[in-house]
Queue: 2 jobs
Job 1
Amino acid sequence: MNKKQALTLGLAFIGVGAVVAYTQRQAITYFLVERNASQRMTATLNHLDDGLHIGLCGTGSPFPDPQRSAACTIVVAGPTVMLFDAGGGAAKQIARMNLNTGQIGHVFLTHYHSDHIDGLGELMMTRWAQTLTDQPLVVHGPTGVEEVIQGFGLAYRQDTQYRVAHHTPQIMPPHLAGAQTATFDVQGESFATVFEAPNLRVESFAVDHAPVSPAVGYKITYKDRSVVISGDTKKSGNVLAAAKGADLLIHEALNPQLVGTLQTIAQKSQRTKLAAIFGDITDYHASPVDVAQTAAQAGVQAVVYTHIVPPLPLPTLKEEFLGDAPKLYSGTLRIGEDGDWISLPAGSKNINFERRWLP
Ligand SMILES: [Zn+2]
Ligand SMILES: [Zn+2]
C-alpha cells in the first residue's frame, strides 16, 4: 500500500468511527455517565497507604479567584477523615478530589473569617445526605464556634424540615442534620490537644491574626508523621514551635509587593474603599519570605503555600509571589494548587505529591 492509499484508508476509518460515535451517542453518553458516577459513588480510601494524606481542596482567599477556592484542607489520617476550614465551595471542591462529604467526621475551624466558614452550610447538608454512619458531624473550633453553627442551623432550619418530610426521617435522620460543636479555649501560648483517636492527635495553638481573636493553627500527628496547618497568621513563634520536628508545613501567604501594586491601581481607579482594605490586610498575614524563614528555622522537610493572596493569573507571577523565599529555605517549597494531594506514608520519611482532580 502506498502513502496515498494508507491515508485514504485512515480517513475512511475515522469517517466510519465518527458515524458510529454519532449514531451511538446516546449509548456512549449513558456508558460514560454510569462509569463516572460509579467511580465517584464507590470511591473509598482503601487504596491509600497507611499514613497522613493531605488534600488541598481550596488554596485561595476572599479574593474572587477562578483558579483557587477559599480555605479548604482535607486531612486523612488512617481511617479518620477531617476537614480544616470550609471556605465557599468546599463541598464541590471535595467532590472534585473524588471524595464525598459523607466521609468527613470532623471539621476544625481556624477562625471565623467568612472565607473559612462560607462553605459550612453546603458541607453540612451534603454530608447529611451522604454519610452512612450514625455519627453527627463534629465541628471543632475556638470560642465562638457554637454561634457560627447555630447561625447555620437557623438559616437551614426550613431546608432541614423539607428534606425530612420529603425523604422520611429514616433516610434523613434529623439528629444527623447540621453538626455538633466541640469548643476549646485558646490559652495564650499553650498548645492544647483538641482531638484524639487511635494513633492520631490534633493539637491547636494560638496564632497572630489580630484583630481576629481567637485564631488558631493545628498540628496533626498520625503515628510517626505530622503536618502543621498555620491558619491565617502573620509570622508566628507558635507556628515555628509547632513546625519543629514536623514533616510538612502548610502555611498561608500574602505577597505585600503584589498587594501594594493592587492598592496603587485601586487608588488610581478611585476605588478608595478597596485601596484601604488592600492596605489593611498586609499587617495580619505572613509573606512568602516570612514562611520560608520559619520553615528553615523549624527544619521541616517541605512547605506548601496556601491561602494565596493576591490571585496569580499569570504563570510568571508565581516567581514574583515567592520572591527570595527559595533562597532562604532549602527543602521542598511549593505553591499549593487546588487538587494537590500530599501523602506522608507512616514508617517512612517520604512526601509524595500528586494531582487528584476530576474534571
Ligand atoms: Zn482567610
Ligand atoms: Zn482570616
Job 2
Amino acid sequence: MNINFDGKVAVVTGGAMGIGEATVRKLAELGASVALLDSNFEAGTKTAQSVVNTGGKCICFACDVSDSKQVESAIAGVVTHFGGIDVLVSNAGIQAYGDVVSTSEELWDKVLGINLKGCFLVSKFAVPAMMKRKGGAIVVVGSVQSMSAIGGSAAYVTAKHGLLGLTRAMALDYAKNGIRVNCVCPGTVDTPMLHWAAGLDPNPQKVLDICARMHPVGRIAKASEIADAIAYLASDWASFITGSALLVDGGMLVPAGGMGFQDGGTGAATR
Ligand SMILES: NC(=O)c1ccc[n+]([C@@H]2O[C@H](COP(=O)([O-])OP(=O)(O)OC[C@H]3O[C@@H](n4cnc5c(N)ncnc54)[C@H](O)[C@@H]3O)[C@@H](O)[C@H]2O)c1
C-alpha cells in the first residue's frame, strides 16, 4: 500500500506559508484536492495557484480561523466546491511572547482565539462533512510546547497544551464515526514564523544557531519534514492511530536538562 489521497478532499488551515504550505503541496502531490484556508488571502492564492500550475488541485479561501462566521462559510464553500471533506489539517497559528503579567488580555484572547479556538471552530464545521463521508482524519499541529514549556510564552504554551486535550477529546468522541484525530508536535521548523521570532533579537543568526543546537540532530526541521508526518497521520497507513501525539522534534525533548546540560560533559560524574 502506498500513501495516496486520490479522490480525497483535504482542508489545510494556515496553508499559505510555512508548515501549512508544505502540507498543502505534499497532500496535492499525493493526489488530494486541497482547500487552503488562510487569513492572508494574497499569499494563499499564490500558493494555491502554484500548486495548480504543477498539476495539483487546490483552491484558497480567505478565512480567519478565530471567526466562526468566516470558518462556517469557508467550510461550506469547500463542500460546495469539492463535494465533501475527508482530511482536516488544523495548522494555523501565531507565536507570541510574554509571561502572564506582561501578556495583555487582548494578546491572550488573540493567541487562544487563533491557536486553540480556531481548531475547535474548523473541527466543529468540518466534522459533520466528514461524518457524511463515513470517516476521515484530523491532524492538529501542536508543538513540543504541547508537552513542555519555554519561559515567557504563557499564552502560546497554554494554547498548544489545550490542542493536545482537544485532540484526545475529539479522538474519543468521533472514533465511532471512523474519524481519527492526532496531533503532530514539531520542534523548531524553518518557516516565516521562526524568522519573525529570530528577528526580535538584534542577532537573528545567533538565535537560529541556538535553535539548531537545542536539537540532538544538530539542526532545525524543514517544513516538508513536518508535512511528511502530517500526511502519514492523515493517511490509511495510520489507520489504527488515534488520540496520539507524534513528536517530530529531532530528539529535542529527549535530553534530561536540555542540550546545554549534555554539552557540559555532565555524565555520570555529576549524577
Ligand atoms: N515554526 C516552528 O518552529 C513551529 C514549531 C512548532 C509548532 N509550530 C506550529 O505550526 C503551525 C504553523 O507554523 P508556521 O511556523 O508554519 O507559521 P507561519 O507564520 O510561517 O505560517 C502560518 C500561516 O498561518 C496563517 N494564519 C495566521 N493567522 C491566521 C488566522 N487567524 N486564520 C487563518 N490563517 C492564519 C498565516 O497567514 C500563515 O500562512 C502553527 O500552529 C505553529 O504554532 C511551528
